[in-house]
Amino acid sequence: MKHFQRLFLFALAVMVISSCGASYKQQHAAEKQAEIKANVAALENCDFILEVTRIIPRGFPSKASNGEYQLRLKGNVVDTRLPYMGSSHEAQYGGVDEISIVFENETVNLIKDFADAAKGEYRYQFTGGKGKDKWTVTLQIYDNGSANIGASSNGGKYMSYIANLVVPTK
Q1: What average pLDDT score do residues 28-42 get?
Q2: Distant-in-sequence, close-in-space partners of 55: CB < 8 Å, separation ≥ 6
Q3: Section 92-114 average pLDDT
Q4: What does the alpha-carbon distance between residue 151 and residue 149 come to, in Å, rounded to a whole number?
Q5: pTM for the complete prediction?
Q6: pLDDT higher than 50, residue 96
Q7: Contact assessment for residue 110 and residue 124, using Cβ atoms and an 8 Å cutoff
Q8: What is the pLDDT of residue 170?
Q9: In the list 8, 13, 16, 147, which could disulfide-bond 141, CB 3.0-4.6 Å?
């Protein structure tokens, strides 16, 4: 009888612990779905920030970034200053900022491609920037919050960045 009671208590404890685990998994899944829903709304409204976590220059080693570089898109207005690392095909005057990728609250002709939105992928492209070079910037953003930024110009090598999506709080 004593053995039966211990076995019963052990089974009861296992059931309680497993139900707590299932509850945690359900809560985590619900939080993830809410985050994806907020990300999709920000992507469709073109109101988001991309926080750069890695800088990947072509032909040079990649470099980690600890959040000091961001790209802000609100409607068709872009604000960013992304570092350019690499060689330029033209002589540059005025230091490194001369060939950085700079958009200072610049209104751009934004091309949106939501063809793969069902798969969670959103693409944007725009051209412009301050300085000598005009940059063509491509954003590839996923509803889970990961993103890639690509930038090319006639005067320099292609640059890419890995970023995280940040939804601005209202």
Answers
A1: 85
A2: 62, 63, 64, 65, 69, 83, 85, 159, 161
A3: 75
A4: 7
A5: 0.78
A6: no
A7: yes
A8: 65
A9: 147
pLDDT in tens, 128-170: 887 667 889 999 999 999 999 999 887 777 899 999 999 987 6
Both tokens assigned to 107: 């209104």
Q: CA gyration radius for the chain?
A: 23
Q: Which residue has the tokens 């296992």?
A: 14
**Distance between CA atoms of 4 and 50, rounded to whole angstroms?**
59
Give the span between the Cα atoms of 103 and 42, in whole angstroms: 20
Task: Set out the domains of the chain in order of their start, with CATH numbers.
Answer: 39-166 (2.40.128.410)
Read off the tokens for 76: 């068709």
Question: How far apart, in whole angstroms, are the C-alpha atoms of residue 8 and residue 127?
Answer: 69
What's the CA gap between 6 and 59, in Å, rounded?
66
Give the pairing of strands 146-153 and 101-107.
unpaired
